[in-house]
Design a protein that fits this description.
The complex is a heterodimer.
Chain A (H helix, E strand, L loop, with lengths): L1 H18 L3 H37 L1 H38 L9 E10 L8 E4 L12 E3 L4 E8 L4 E5 L6 E6 L5 E5 L21 E5 L10 E4 L11 E10 L6 E7 L8 E7 L3
Antiparallel strand pairs in A: 1-2, 1-12, 2-5, 3-4, 3-12, 4-5, 6-7, 6-9, 7-8, 8-11, 9-10, 10-11
Chain B lengths: L1 H18 L13 H12 L2 H17 L7 H14 L10 H25 L7 H32 L3 H4 L7
The chains are: A alpha+beta, B mainly alpha.
């Protein structure tokens, strides 16, 4: 009986110690734990990808042939476009030199592969990437795809990093509407499940919201939303998405708009972490 | 041998829980594989072993997520204690009681964890999202808890814990 009490006491003491673990130690423990499971996730991610690709290939040989032809056409078109853009870049450089413009550095980015989606608890909308601090990635770095902003890095270990998606309610991004230059704060809104919706709509995912847009600013459907550069995490000018709808908030103090994110966060396989930029 | 079995099951459950996909329409709910281990030890073994399992499973759960350390251990421990009150109801190896307790525990643990996380300002999601997630965690608990219980019981049998496996009264 005494031994049992001691063991229960020790277990409870363990829980108390965990609850009061200093933040740097907790982050270190988390990073190590993630590092140890990342190899499993890497292998599983590869297996799942290969299997799904094989199934897709078997199912749609015709589609693949057509896709290949379209891609070949696209490559030719893009090569022409690259040639044209190279000429324009050269011309632009010359003009900038003449006008004594400061050379604008492009972002330094690290390409990463997505090895897991969502954290083990399911409370946060995250991605896990196969690169970490060994590649220069640190917490609070912007993560993008060629289409637009995906989120920001949170916990980083030597070989992995977690990304909090812009669709998560905990993620807030300072944004600007390109057309009007109006500012707002974008945040994910998860899922709507309130009584006002019919039962079949109970699980309808809602769009991230752009809140705190001044009432006197015009917000139209299709307006291009980019990062403002305020806040220090996201460099200015990254595409976030397009306005889907807008309305004055219930409080009547500001406008709120639904944003359709440009990046396909549910299917993305490769992303770029911006490791250095001029905000 | 109990520790070895527990460690192996925690490792396997972690990998499975991490790998299984989560969907938005289910509130990003995941199969409560780690909680299932705590339930197994709560229903089949003494409080000490259950608390150790809660500590171990909670530690891994928190380490691999954004949850602050210790929250899941606390939550799993509380749910394990509550589930322990139903151990007398399980008189034979059957899927149904495990499934029902798994569903109830999955729902309860999600709500308790949400309350702790929301109280600490760690999550921004609304209560309706939590209820949706809790409902689906309960549904996933219907199959995952009996599965983990069966696997752990099989491993216990394999290493010679059969006498302990058949003990449902807590007397060893």
């Amino acid at each position: 009986m005494r031994r049992r009490r001691i063991t229960i006491g020790l277990a409870l003491a363990g829980i108390v110690i965990l609850l009061n673990l200093p933040l740097p130690t907790a982050l270190h423990v988390k990073a190590n734990a993630r590092g140890s499971v990342s190899s499993f996730q890497n292998v599983m991610s590869l297996v799942v990808y290969r299997v799904s690709e094989a199934i897709r290939l078997i199912r749609s040989v015709d589609e693949v042939t057509e896709e290949k032809r379209e891609m070949a056409e696209e490559i030719i078109s893009l090569r022409q476009e690259i040639g044209r853009l190279k000429l324009l870049a050269r011309e632009s450089r010359e003009l900038m030199k003449q006008l004594d413009y400061r050379q604008v550095e492009s972002h330094r980015m690290v390409m990463c592969q997505v090895i897991a989606r969502g954290d083990i608890s399911g409370w946060w909308q995250t991605l896990r990437l196969d690169r970490g601090s060994d590649d220069g990635i640190a917490p609070d770095m912007a993560v993008v795809t060629v289409d637009g902003l995906v989120g920001k890095t949170t916990t980083v270990s030597a070989g992995t990093s977690d990304v909090l998606l812009i669709t998560d309610p905990n993620c807030r991004v300072s944004c600007r509407i390109v057309r009007t230059r109006a500012f707002g704060v974008a945040r994910g809104s998860g899922v709507v499940a309130d009584g006002s919706l019919p039962l079949e709509m109970i699980c309808r995912p809602t769009l991230p919201r752009l809140d705190f847009v001044a009432r006197d600013q015009e917000v139209l459907e299709g307006d291009h939303v980019i990062t403002s550069g305020l806040g220090g995490v996201y460099p200015a000018g990254l595409t976030v998405g397009h306005v889907k709808d807008s309305a004055v908030d219930k409080s009547g103090l500001y406008q709120s708009a639904g944003i359709l994110p440009s990046a396909m966060m549910d299917t993305v396989r490769y992303v770029f972490v911006i490791v250095s930029s001029e905000l | 041998m109990t520790w070895i079995v527990m460690s192996v099951v925690v490792m396997l459950s972690t990998v499975i829980q991490t790998m299984l996909p989560a969907y938005a329409f289910m509130g990003q709910a995941r199969a409560p594989m780690l909680l299932a281990i705590v339930l197994y030890y709560s229903l089949k073994r003494d409080t000490t072993t259950m608390l150790t399992a809660a500590l171990m499973a909670g530690f891994v759960h928190d380490a691999l997520s954004e949850i602050p350390m210790g929250y899941s251990s606390l939550c799993f421990g509380a749910v394990g204690f509550a589930a322990g009150h139903f151990r007398e109801l399980i008189t034979k190896e059957s899927l149904l009681p495990h499934s029902l307790i798994g569903a109830a525990a999955g729902f309860a643990s999600t709500v308790v964890l949400y309350a702790i996380l929301k109280g600490g300002g760690h999550v921004g999601c609304r209560l309706n999202w939590c209820i949706l997630k809790a409902f689906w965690t309960g549904v996933l608990g219907l199959w995952s808890v009996p599965l983990v219980c069966a696997l752990t019981a099989w491993l216990d049998g394999l290493v010679g814990n059969i006498a302990v496996r058949r003990n449902v009264t807590g007397i060893e």
